[in-house]
Amino acid sequence: MPATWIKDPLAIFAEGAERGVVIKDGRIVELVPTGGQPITADVSAYDASAHVVLPGLINTHHHFYQTLTRALPAALGRELFPWLQALYPVWARLTPESLELGVTVAMSELLLSGCTTTTDHHYVFPAGLEESVDIEVGVARRLGMRVLLTRGSMNRSVKDGGLPPDSVVQDEDTILADSERVVEKFHERGMDAMVQIALAPCSPFSVTTSLMASTAVLAEKLNVRLHTHLGETEDENRYCEEIYGCRPLDYLEQTGWLHQRTWLAHGIHFNAGEMARLGRAGISISHCACSNQLLASGCCPVCDMEDAGVSIGLGVDGSASNDGSNMMQEVRTAFLLQRARYGVGRVSHLDALRWATRGSAACVGRPELGEIAVGRMADLALFKLDELRFSGHGDPLAALVLCGAHRADRVMVGGQWRVIDGVIPGLDVGDLIRRHGAAARAMQAG
Ligand code: ZN
């Protein structure tokens, strides 16, 4: 395979690559500095002079199936617990066909927004959806995205003091057996892995202590990552105090999760001592700025977390609390929210871009992603600044975040172009919207 020189970008989020980067065999093999020429032999150039080049964005928290329940009237104007209670019965009607459409929509939105690696936290398993992860893997392979799919789980329903109804939970033995099955069937190891699996009991109020502990043991045995929601709301604090007699982080420690295999969604309501414990343990946090504002859950103390040694990544969260899957818009939202919290001297657009790339790479345990540097995987997002919203800008990288970039012109995953001229080759978006919309209406109508 000849090498490709992404030549003379308008701007690039990297040091010493002013004249671009050289890609070969799916990896970045050379950075070309100001005044330089590639030293790699047999290079064909791609003219990037109209593009701002970023490392591919990495989404660290999502629930793809929720694209089927966006802006649902029954869930509007509710905080997390009543919001979930309004949605569970609708999600119980998910089918393999509607899940596949929901996943395709979410991943296509992400890819078009410059996202090259995404996680998904799938935790509803009504009867008939036993092979949810298999369905997600199929879509990821078709679209050519890198994924860390989490085998989510819930086994504490209302009758056991939990929040979800019986119709969406499974028993512990079934969950553990399927977790092992999907890791053995799909989890790839190595720098160029396209599909990976993690294990992800949903939350303290939908999972038993026994399942939390046994999942941590299984993740250790299978050498895969662990994910859950934690520190999202004050309601969760109260639930843990009442049911477990401790705060959520103590509960995490008691169940064997306080180590670097774990990344957590939200992390809003930890105190200073708890942040220090998270930092010492090497736990990463997925900051979900849109979702946290929509559900009025609070604001993750991102800078305090980083001071405590916690890596911060960004996540769009599910499409019932965002209600979109646009990673570039998430960068802007996180930038604005954290700047409002910490001030102009503390948070810049470059910090927000760093969270969505290097920080997110730490969450997914993939240091070979999230950075434009020699030896890293060739996952890139290229944006043009040719829309009305960018006209008159002074700094291309700042303009991406401040003017509200929302759609990549080109996206490369492992050296392959997966978005060309703002479209996904081979994807009929009109047909997808028609079929996905019909599936959503059927599910919502019951
Ligand atoms: Zn979530």
Question: What features would you describe in this structure?
Answer:
There is one protein chain. The protein has helices at residues 80-91, 96-112, 132-143, 172-186, 209-222, 234-244, 248-254, 272-281, 289-294, 302-307, 327-342, 349-363, 396-402, 429-445; strands at 3-7, 11-12, 20-24, 27-32, 43-47, 51-55, 57-59, 115-122, 146-153, 195-201, 226-230, 262-266, 284-287, 312-314, 380-384, 410-413, 416-419. It has 14 helices and 17 strands. The chain is globular and about 65 Å long. A five-stranded mixed sheet has the order 2-6-15-16-17, with helices on one face. It has a four-stranded mixed sheet with strand order 4-3-1-5, with no helix packed on it. The chain has a four-stranded parallel sheet with strand order 7-8-9-10. Helix 2 (96-112) runs parallel beside helix 3, helix 2 packs across helix 14 (429-445) and helix 11 crosses helix 12 (349-363). The protein has two domains: 3-55 and 376-420, Urease, subunit C, domain 1 (Roll); 57-363, Metal-dependent hydrolases (TIM Barrel, Alpha-Beta Barrel), CATH 3.20.20. With 446 residues, it is of the alpha/beta class. Residues 61, 63, 121, 229, 265, 317-318 line the site of zinc ion. Zinc ion binds next to loops.
Outline of the structure:
By secondary structure, the protein is an alpha/beta fold.
Topology:
Elements: E1 3-7, E2 11-12, E3 20-24, E4 27-32, E5 43-47, E6 51-55, E7 57-59, H1 80-91, H2 96-112, E8 115-122, H3 132-143, E9 146-153, H4 172-186, E10 195-201, H5 209-222, E11 226-230, H6 234-244, H7 248-254, E12 262-266, H8 272-281, E13 284-287, H9 289-294, H10 302-307, E14 312-314, H11 327-342, H12 349-363, E15 380-384, H13 396-402, E16 410-413, E17 416-419, H14 429-445
Helix pairs in contact: 2-3, 2-14, 4-5, 11-12, 12-13
